[in-house]
Design goal:
By secondary structure, the protein is mainly alpha-helical. Helix 1 crosses helix 4 and helix 9 packs antiparallel against helix 10.
């Protein structure tokens, strides 16, 4: 008589494979999140600065392609080179630090103070490096000035409102989902796929991303944009808020609902 898979010895004792993979991914998130939260200051500054430079290379590709073709979608695809650089160089963006370190904090493998330190340092270093790299880009390629100003004005003109907040929420969700997909595997080749797809989606659809669009506005400001740094600060602060909501509420919180037993186990292990 043929045996089904459920009839085989020990089959009932084996965990469901998809669930087992989810738990493995959770464990990887906790371990990496704890490492990020406890990272010494100099390495933390380094990965944040490099993250700003990497996104700057993607912005360079975006501006060149949009200047030459006029197509935002093609420019968005070109921008994905920045996310590929982030992945392969192991640098970090502020918005990549929602799922991973927050999971570690929820599992009580880190503190809120450590999370605030990570977020604040990464965001500031991303922006600092981005300001410098965009100055270099616009100095080296002044023909891109009109494209930079036109692209940046789109976000400034949106202002602080429902539409811009929704775009920021979507941007936070997109980046956090990309992070989740990349942590589902250890194969670098597979991780490149979401880097390209979500990078193109983010830039090609003009979602409001706190770092990317800040760099775009910096590029415009370097060449005499019809708006000022106060406009940038208002837009960037609104983008940060929306990005956090999108990343934490739409992706991270929902993801943690998948493994409540593992969260409870981690918390108990820290209390022991």
């Amino acid at each position: 008589m043929d045996q089904t898979a459920s009839d085989l010895p020990g089959a009932a004792d084996r965990p469901d494979e998809p669930e087992h993979e989810v738990e493995d991914a959770f464990d990887r998130l906790v371990e990496e999140g704890e490492d990020r939260l406890r990272r010494p200051l100099l390495p933390l500054l380094s990965v944040g600065l490099l993250g700003g430079i990497d996104v700057g290379t993607g912005l360079l590709a975006y501006l060149v392609v949009k200047h030459e073709t006029g197509s935002g979608l093609l420019a968005g695809l070109a921008f994905s080179v920045g996310f590929v650089a982030l992945l392969l160089a192991r640098s970090e963006l502020f918005t990549e630090n929602f799922l991973v370190p927050v999971t570690a904090v929820v599992a009580r493998r880190g503190t809120l103070a450590q999370l605030a330190r990570l977020w604040g340092t990464t965001l500031l270093t991303n922006l600092l490096a981005g300001w410098v790299i965009t100055w270099i880009i616009m100095t080296a390629l002044p023909d891109l000035a009109s494209t930079a100003v036109e692209s940046a004005r789109h976000f400034v003109d949106l202002g602080v409102g429902r539409e811009s907040f929704a775009l920021a929420v979507l941007a936070g969700a997109v980046i956090t989902l990309m992070t989740r997909m990349q942590h589902a595997t250890e194969a670098v080749g597979v991780k490149l796929v979401p880097a390209v797809l979500f990078g193109a989606l983010l830039a090609g659809t003009q979602l409001l991303h706190s770092v990317l669009d800040s760099l775009l506005m910096f590029a415009a400001l370097h060449v005499g944009a019809p708006f000022g740094y106060a406009d940038w600060a208002r837009t960037a602060a609104w983008a940060v808020l929306g990005n956090v909501v999108g990343g934490l509420v739409l992706v991270t919180a929902v993801r943690l609902l998948r493994v409540p037993h593992r969260v409870a186990e981690e918390r108990r292990s820290q209390e022991a």
